[in-house]
Amino acid sequence: MQLIVPASTSNLGAGFDTFGLALTLYNTFEIEESDAFEIEIYGEGADKLPTGIDNLFLRTYIRACQELGVEDRPIKVVQKNGIPVGRGLGSSATAIVAGILTALELNDLKLSTDEILELALMFESHPDNIVPALVGGFTISALDEVNPRKVYFQKLEFPKELQIVVLIPEFEILTEEARKVLPSMVNLKDAVFNIQRAALLVSALVNKEFDLLRVAVEDKLHQPFRSKLLHGFEAFKEEAYQMGADAVFISGSGSTIGVFTRKNADEIGKFGVEMYKKMKIPARYMILEADEEGARWAK
Ligand code: HSE
Questions:
Q1: Minimum-distance ligand 1 atom for the alpha carbon of 93
Q2: Which residues, listed in sequence order, are joined to residue 31 by a DSSP beta bridge?
Q3: Alpha carbons 16 and 253: distance in angstroms, whole number
Q4: Taking a C-beta distance cutoff of 8 angstroms, is the pair 117, 82 a contact?
Q5: 109 CA distance to ligand 1 centroid (A)?
Q6: 130 CA distance to ligand 1 middle (Å)
């Protein structure tokens, strides 16, 4: 049996730790029961992801079985990765979601979406990639203040008019490192700046007021600090807007840059690759759409 789990971009400018969007780029997990734990990884990250019991998918599967009170029967997994690792495209979230769904499926157990998310948040403290990886679409997530594993979320359909360009440089940014550069306190003016824009982004997407997106993805909480780790972001942003992009933002904690656009998607991607080439950084781009379905078993 094969599980398909989408990539996701997150934050989308002002929605730090809140917004997520599932993308038409996937990791797949072929699973069968076996005599021993075994995982083969192909594609993105195949040369560096662990294939022992410390592998994130296997760790999640085993822990999920324990939490569900069932035996963690050995499995063989063939993982085919389309999602670049460590680039802010939710690769880890796919392994976590897949590990939990596998534990449920092999034991014929059913949990509600909220219960699955509660298990998933044992492995990841931010919900913004986990939620879209599981349910698809454009998601807004809020963690409970008392129970950090309880997430309240909304899913909205992403407008089909917008193409999503992801510009992926060949260097990784670890989320943990990218969080260390953020200040622990923000001032009221900056908090208000982000609240205004986060609310604006949701309504602009719902009402298809795409000219507002450029303002709606401005942010004072993380991008100004992270752009120091992500050379090229500011220059790319400026040029992409000149070329007609609707929104430019750091995908998750980077290193990918996300773009929403109604025109010139290819040109914008090519410009980004050329820009990085001049900086002697290999890069590539993909033009994607929103995945509205989320994680699913192949039919
Ligand atoms: N929202 C997280 C961050 C990344 O920006 O640090 C995804 O978990």
A1: 8
A2: 77
A3: 9
A4: no
A5: 30
A6: 11
Q: What is the largest CA-CA distance in the chain?
A: 58
**Could you tell me the pTM of the whole model?**
0.96
Go through the domains of the chain in sequence order and give each one's CATH number.
2-157+291-297 (3.30.230.10), 163-288 (3.30.70.890)
Terminal-residue alpha carbon distance, the chain? 9
Residue given tokens 């009221």 in the structure block: 188
The residue behind tokens 């303002």 is 215
Kindly give the distance from the C-alpha atom of residue 105 to the centroid of ligand 1, in angstroms, as a whole number: 29
Separation CA 61–CA 74 (nearest Å): 10
The bridge status of strand 257-261 relative to strand 163-169 is antiparallel
pLDDT (tens digit, 9 = 90+) per residue, 178-205?
Answer: 999 999 999 999 999 999 999 999 999 9
Contact between residue 48 and residue 85 where contact means Cβ atoms under 8 Å apart: yes
Q: pLDDT tens digits for 113-162?
A: 999 999 999 999 899 999 999 999 999 999 999 999 999 999 999 999 99
Tell me which of 177, 225, 253 to substitute to probe ligand 1's pocket, judged by most ligand atoms within 8 Å of the beta carbon. 253
Q: Which atom, in ligand 1's list, is nearest to the CA of 16?
A: 1
Confidence class for position 170, pLDDT limits 50, 70, 90: very high
